[in-house]
Design a protein that fits this description.
single chain, alpha/beta, six-stranded parallel sheet, 14% strand, globular
């Protein structure tokens, strides 16, 4: 679990956890994990076969919706203090100040619970007027935001233990046909998935210039009416395909 270090275990308890983990991994006939990083980690503990089966998306998606008229950038899901993307707010502030056309078209939709510290960071960067704090909505409604937004954000904490975390919403993002901007730790398993499927770009919390360039690139494509994702190999992430993969292991 990614929050293991936060449990503040004694040395004896920590050793007990590791011993139990090794016991389970060495006694299992087959091990299934949800990320490549976890597979590599467990290969140092056991010689038993390990298969990666990630989360995935449902094949039934919402009806296609017209895209927003503005350059809308959306984050779907909770955005709490430990995942506050300060780099994003700084970059958006800079572009707004330098590009009047961008300033007139920018709209940021935060769909889900947003912490006060995140809202404060947004205000400190003079972005409040561009942000629509939507709050919690149903899953069907959130899918609509995914479909009609120009760009989708995926945010993860800048912590090494988060490198193997692949948010479930990534896969719904990928089949929304909208480009994804992911900000998280380096390395991060999400980076490989986005690169292999051609559905977005990943940035670390130090990649400020690169993030700015990509947002401007997307904005120029938006103005010319050519902004979209050109995903490849997405079928393997459908829940049907993933279930078939699991069945073959049983």
């Amino acid at each position: 679990i990614d929050y293991h270090k936060e449990l503040k275990l004694s040395k004896a308890s920590e050793n007990k956890h590791k011993a139990l983990e090794k016991q389970v991994l060495t006694k299992a006939d087959q091990i299934v994990v949800t990320s490549e990083s976890t597979r590599l980690e467990f290969e140092h503990i056991t010689s038993k076969p390990i298969e990666v089966i990630t989360n995935g998306y449902d094949t039934v998606q919402a009806t296609n919706l017209p895209l927003d008229n503005k350059f809308s950038m959306a984050h779907i899901g909770s955005l709490l203090s430990e995942r506050n993307p300060e780099i994003l707010w700084r970059v958006l502030k800079k572009i707004v100040e330098e590009n009047q056309d961008f300033e007139e078209n920018l709209e940021v939709n935060l769909v889900g619970v947003v912490s006060e510290s995140v809202l404060k960071s947004i205000a400190n960067n003079n972005l409040t007027k561009y942000v629509n704090n939507v709050g919690y909505v149903s899953h069907n409604e959130s899918v609509k935001y995914q479909k009609k937004s120009q760009v989708l954000f995926l945010i993860e904490s800048n912590l090494p233990e988060k490198s193997s975390i692949i948010p479930g919403k990534l896969f719904e993002y990928m089949v929304s046909n909208r480009p994804i901007l992911a900000i998280g730790p380096r390395p991060w398993d999400v980076s490989t998935i986005l690169a292999n499927t051609n559905t977005g770009t990943t940035f670390s919390y130090e990649d400020e210039d690169a993030l700015q360039s990509k947002i401007i690139e997307y904005f120029e494509a938006f103005k010319s009416g050519t902004l979209q994702s050109h995903g490849i190999g997405l079928q393997k992430y459908s829940r049907k395909a993933l279930t078939e993969h699991l069945v073959k292991l049983l």
